[in-house]
Every structure is written in C-alpha cells, then in structure tokens.
Amino acid sequence: MAPRKGTKRVANSIEKEDKISKRSKKQDLLVTPDLRTVKEGGIVLCIGQGDVGQLGLGPDVFEKTRPAAVPKYENIAAVAAGGMHNVCLTKDGKVLTFGCNDEGALGRDTTEEGTETIPNYVNLPGKVIQVSAGDSHSAALLSDGRVFAWGSFRDSHGTMGLTLKGNEKLPLEMLPGVVIVKIASGADHLILLDNHGRIYSCGCGEQGQLGRISPRSADRHSRHGVEPLLMPAMVKFKVGQKFEFDDIWAGTYCTFARSYPSGEIYAFGLNNYRQTGLTDGDMQFFPRLSKTFSGRKWVHISGGQHHTIALDDQGKVFVMGRKEYGRLGLGPNCEDATSLTQVPALESFKCVDIGAGSSQSFAVSSSGDLYAWGMGSNGQLGTGEEDDVETPQKIKGKQLEDKIVMRVTGGGQHTVLLAVKKR
Q1: Are strands 298-303 and 307-312 parallel, antiparallel or unpaired?
Q2: Contact, 209 vs 186, CB < 8 A?
Q3: Residue 2 has what pLDDT?
Q4: Edge-to-edge strand ranges of the sheet holding 137-142
Q5: Could you give the CA distance from residue 132 to residue 107 in angstroms, rounded to a whole number?
Q6: Quick one: which of 93, 125, 223, 276 could link to 267 by a disulfide (CB 3.0–4.6 Å)?
Q7: Cβ atoms of residues 309 and 326 within 8 Å
Q8: How far are the Cα atoms of 61, 65, 325 from residue 388, in angstroms, in the given order?
Q9: What is the CA 210 to chain-centroid distance, rounded?
Q10: CB-based contacts of 92: which residues, under 8 Å, 6+ apart?
Q11: Which residues contact 13 (CB under 8 A, 6 or more apart)?
Q12: Distance between CA 356 and CA 364 in Å, rounded?
C-alpha cells in the first residue's frame, strides 16, 4: 500500500517531538549531592591556634593541642573551617559562626569586644541545609535553593570584596533565580551546583580555580576588571561537550566536579604539585578530565594548598600532591605523588570522612576514630605536640574518650571536629 501524501512529514514531526521530549527529560535532571550532614547532631571540638577566636572558647584561649569541646551547643549537624574562622550548622537549620571577623566572614555584628570568639547566630531568611567557609568568606545554602554569602574574596593584590560594592558584613543572596543544591568554598572562590547539574563560580581566578576565566582576564586589573570574577557565572565546556554534574568539591586553589552519570572527575585550578591529578601545566584554567580518579566512585574530595585527599565509596583514602611536612601520610621516604596513591596505614579499615588543612590531612574511621598527619607547628593535628607527623596517627584526648568523631574539617592553623556522644 502506497503511503498517503504527507505521511513522511508527520513521521518527521513525531521524530522531532521525540528528540525534544528526550532533551526535556535530560534538562529536568534533579541533582541531589551528599551534603554530609550528621542527622543526630553533635558537639564541636577544636584544635590548634586560637589567637583570633577560631577555637570558639572565648577571648582568653589561644591554643589547644588536644581536642577541646566548644560549650553550650550539642545539636550541630555540619562544620566548616575557614582560614581563621568557622561556620557551624545546627540540626534545625540555623548557622553559628566564630573567629576572625576583620572582613566580615562571621556575617554578624561583633563590635562588642570578645563576641567574635564565642559562637553566635547569623540571621538568614530561611532554613539552611549546608555551609561552607574560605579564608575570609562564608556561605550558606537554604532549603529552597537560595545561596547567601558574606565576607570577602582576596587575590594577590589584596581584598577583592565579595561583590562590586566591596566586603559584605551581612549575608547577601548570590545567584537569584537559580536553584542551587550544593556549595563549596576554596580559600578565595565559591563554587555552586544547580539542580540541573550545572556549575557556577565566583571569586579569585588567578590560579584557574573558577574554571571559566582565561589567565589574562584572571587579573582584576585587566581591561575586563573585577566584575567577571565576582559575578557568579556558569563554567563552560568546549563546543560540542555537554556535561552534567552531581557533586562538587573545592581545594584551597582548585576545584573538582563529578560528572553524571559517568562518575568521572573533572578538575581545574592550581596544579604545581599535580594536586589536581593532571599531568601537564602548573595551572588549569578550564575543566579537564583528571584520569587518575577514573575507575572508582568518589564520595568526598578535600584539598589543601598543595595536596589533595580523596575518599571512595569503599572507605579507602587516597592522596596526591606535595610530600613536605608529611601531609601525604606515605612515610618519611616518599616522593611527591603525581597521581592518587592509597594511604597504607588506613588500608585495614573503612573511613567515613576525610579533610585537608593547609598542610595537614585527616581521616575519620567508621568506628569514630580520628587520624591526623602532616604539619603540626600550631598543634592543629591534636597530638598534644607541635611536631610534624609523617604517617596517620590516631588522635586521643580526654574530650574524645566518650565520643565518636563523625566529621573533620581543616582550617589555616586550626582543625574542627564534629562528634557525637557514645551511647
């Protein structure tokens, strides 16, 4: 039977609609990354330098070489250590900050002397589900997908401000109209992941950590000025490459993103010690596939100044980057690791969290023990001493005897733990 006139046109129309339908479904991808909150809520413990109140123990406590409990609060669900300040999230979605507030990183009034050294609440317009902290900025993700940030970014020229207006001492919405599902802070950059798997960035781009700014434009004194840096914008890929992502992480000067559905890790930023796992070039200004991550499912990645620590879904811990001060945990005779290398001392048990300070590394075992290694010059490892540690050492202390450590986050010269009481 011969086809009726116009059938071909109808078939082509149906085929076109099918393609549009498939594309719409792809665009409707809802991303739900792991925000790594602790459902039961716990206690904050701090270690290391406290000269600007970053231990949360008041104006008279300047150092703790063993974990010390921050009093009063026992309902903390997440912690984020900045350069010299901290941000804590309570179970009911409120935000506490303490530490240095010179550039507004606490997001609250600290004009009364000593108030920066004691945790207090930040006023935010809704329930918060995630917090992040950089050297001089902080950010909070609300349950409705809005992101608020405060403080300032910095580059090699000094303070950049958080927006074109300068430093922001109180929370300011960062990307109105876009539904964000996760945030991550490097030292001076902020990464945002939306519910369709797209990545946005803002802040300092000098080391390539924004993933969307050329080396020439990364200098705010270029003809483009500071606006392209401070205005959050989408990270773009090469023409013809369409990627979606389901998780993001930030190192001090670099960024990692997990593609969906492949699970491959893309990286950009400072790479002078191969801390992004890319084999060529000191800095990567645009996203590139980091092949050293291939073959495993990664649940968490954390980066210091010159090294990276990563945790896979089997609870195994890997490191790469610079060896100095023992930050890789591979022993006294190791070399710089140019690709991910498993930490032998942690092979025999499962880990549930990892964290990197500037030159330190941490891991939390499934039994709730904290392991630390790297530079210890400010007591931030929690060993009770100020010596460097070249292989993971189990941290002990009076405050840990009746507690299970759940999370760890490293700051500039201090470390913050989230622990729950043993039942």
Answers
A1: antiparallel
A2: yes
A3: 39
A4: 128-133, 137-142, 147-151, 168-173
A5: 13
A6: 276
A7: no
A8: 23, 13, 6
A9: 14
A10: 75, 127
A11: none
A12: 12
Average pLDDT over residues 88-110: 98
> Among all chains, which residue has been given the structure tokens 């006139």?
5
Secondary structure class of 398 (helix, strand, coil)? helix
Cis amide bond preceding 261, omega within 30: yes
Mean pLDDT of 410-415: 96
Of the candidates 78, 90, 84, the residue with the CA atom closest to the CA atom of residue 106: 84
Over residues 174-209, the pLDDT tens digits come to: 999 999 999 999 999 999 999 999 999 999 999 999
Q: 130 with 114: CB under 8 angstroms?
A: no
Q: Distances in Å between the alpha carbon of 8 and those of 15, 21, 289?
A: 11, 20, 43
Report whether 139 contacts 128 (CB < 8 A).
no
Distance between CA atoms of 38 and 89, rounded to whole angstroms? 10
Asked if 198 and 245 touch (Cβ cutoff 8 Å), the reply is yes
Residue found by looking up tokens 């990286």 in the block: 267
Q: Among candidates 272, 159, 277, 256, which has minimal Cα distance to 207? A: 272
Q: Enter the DSSP assignment of 20.
A: H
Q: Are 208 and 250 in contact (CB under 8 A)?
A: no
Given a contact cutoff of 8 angstroms between Cβ atoms, the answer to whether 61 and 50 are in contact is yes
Q: What is the CA radius of gyration of the chain?
A: 22
Residue 1, strand partner residues: none
pLDDT-based confidence at 239, cuts 50/70/90? Answer: low
In this model, does residue 132 exceed pLDDT 90?
A: yes
Distance, in Å, from the CA atom of 13 to the CA atom of 16, rounded to the nearest integer, reads 5
Residue 265 CB-half CA count within 13 A: 27
Residues near 393 by Cβ (< 8 Å), separated by ≥ 6? 371, 372, 373, 381, 383
Place of tokens 């690709």: 339
Angstrom CA distances, 234 to 178, 202, 229, 242, 397, stand at 11, 9, 11, 13, 45
Residue 23 has pLDDT above 70, yes or no: no
Cα diameter, the chain: 94
Residue with tokens 């990197």: 356
Amino acid residing at 352? V
DSSP-derived letter for residue 99 is E
DSSP-derived pairing of the beta strands 147-151 and 168-173: antiparallel
Report the C-alpha gap between 200 and 357 in whole angstroms: 24
State the Cα angle at 15 between 13 and 17, rounded to 5°.
Answer: 70
